[in-house]
Amino acid sequence: xxxxxxxxxxxxxxxxxxxxxxxxxxxxxxITLLFLIIVSVILVALESVESFRLNYSxxxxxxxxxxxxxxxxxxxxxxxxxxKPFKFIISLYGIIDLLSIIPxxxxxxxxxxxxxxxxxxxxxxxxxxxxxxxxxxxESNTLMKALIASRAKVGVFIFSVLVICIIFGTxxxxxxxxxxxxTSIPEGIYWSIxxxxxxxxxxxxxxTPFGQFxxxxxxxxxxxxxxxxxxxxxxxxxxxxxxxxxTQACPHCMTSDHPDNAIYCYHCGELLNDE
Length: 275
Description:
Blueprint: H1 2-19, H2 24-47, H3 50-55, H4 57-80, H5 85-89, H6 92-109, H7 127-130, H8 134-149, H9 151-175, H10 185-196, H11 209-240
Helix pairs in contact: 1-2, 2-4, 4-6, 8-11, 9-10, 9-11
């Protein structure tokens, strides 16, 4: 009985350190892991430089193995401290974790697969999760919710911009001669999009006075249009940011971003701390 209680305690303690950042040990674990992730991605990038790979091949190989072993231990610990390991394995971050460690092991069996090490760059997707301090995880989730909530408004806005580009593109095709580059309506629409977004490649340019006037109008409109989706998302962001959340993760379903006073998981209904 005492062994079971002790095992449950260490399992809960391990979960608290790995999946949460409300404690000093949890923050230290997250920051250390983030440092290793950045180092591993830098090593993968350096390995792609032929001169560096030839001169420092031993250093790269040893460093790669050390980091791979550390990531492997971390992956095993994550499986040990959750009540449903299979659910973590098939989750997005579980797949990313697995993809980040198997390339080095596969390279032992198959020659030439060392280039699969580039898959470790996928670990950068975990930056916001690893920095699971309240402000980082809260803001990342809030931003995602704001983008989802504003998708309809942004979609209508993009459709309106597309209509404007079609109208101006057609006008430029009618006004400008062929030698200016406006040989078809699609060419005119392409020019309108490039000009409206203030990119301005310069491959097509109006030569008539009226065409140049329309170009100036589109350029001025472009500066105003850029600010519209930003304002839409910002309004939703300020609304979503009023909800306070923490880094506590459910040991049953792995759901995070719970309210500060939450006792039960809002996703599965289980106790967040069942010690």
